[in-house]
Design brief:
The protein is an all-alpha fold. It has one domain. Helix content is 80%, strand content 0%. It has 7 helices and no strands. α1 runs antiparallel to α5, α2 packs parallel to α5 and α5 packs antiparallel against α6. The longest helix has 38 residues. The radius of gyration is 20 Å and the shape is elongated. The model has no long low-confidence stretch (mean pLDDT 89).
Length: 182
């Protein structure tokens, strides 16, 4: 069951990463079009605002992908010196801390979105962007990150119950500098 969970998360997050990449490329095209238009005396306007929104959304969705690829930074000086069981305990502790933090961000993000929806809030900019249009996908990214984190903890715990420390490390561990050189 654990390998199935991990594989499904990797596949889903890979697809999300591709969609986020397409969104970023569209934003780049938009900014470039605005730059070219400025050279001939015109402008689309709002490129700074829209690109900021895109970056916030891309970041919130990209964090789950980074997690499944073990790309989050961790200080592993103790972990690298620990035996297999110690590394597993440190990995789970790090993941639990991350899961609690991300879940808290997702929970605290909902009232912000709910207030924007209730008040029909708009950005205080020339575009007057409805904030809920930006906050909803941003918050959804944080929720997905929290779900991914908790599912990865579940998978790692299942692996550890089978005493499969190597698989658990491969699922939620970290790669040190020596691993990166291999």
């Amino acid at each position: 069951m654990a390998p199935t969970i991990l594989l499904a998360l990797k596949r889903l997050n890979h697809a999300v990463a591709i969609l986020v990449g397409v969104l970023l490329l569209a934003c780049v095209a938009f900014v470039l079009a605005d730059i070219v238009l400025r050279q001939i005396g015109s402008s689309l306007g709002g490129t700074d605002e829209i690109s900021g929104y895109v970056m916030a959304i891309a970041t919130s969705w990209g964090m789950a992908y980074t997690l499944t690829e073990l790309g989050h930074v961790r200080i592993d000086i103790l972990r690298s010196r620990a035996p297999s069981r110690g590394r597993a305990a440190l990995d789970l502790t790090a993941m639990l801390a991350l899961a609690v933090t991300v879940t808290l961000v997702a929970i605290r993000g909902w009232p912000v979105l709910a207030r924007s929806l209730a008040n029909s809030s708009r950005a205080n900019t020339p575009l007057e962007t409805p904030l809920a249009l930006v906050q909803a996908p941003w918050l959804a990214g944080w929720v997905w990150f929290a779900i991914t984190t908790w599912l990865m903890i579940l998978a790692a715990a299942l692996l550890l119950l089978r005493s499969d420390h190597a698989a658990s490390e491969a699922a939620i561990g970290t790669f040190g500098e020596l691993d990166a050189l291999k």
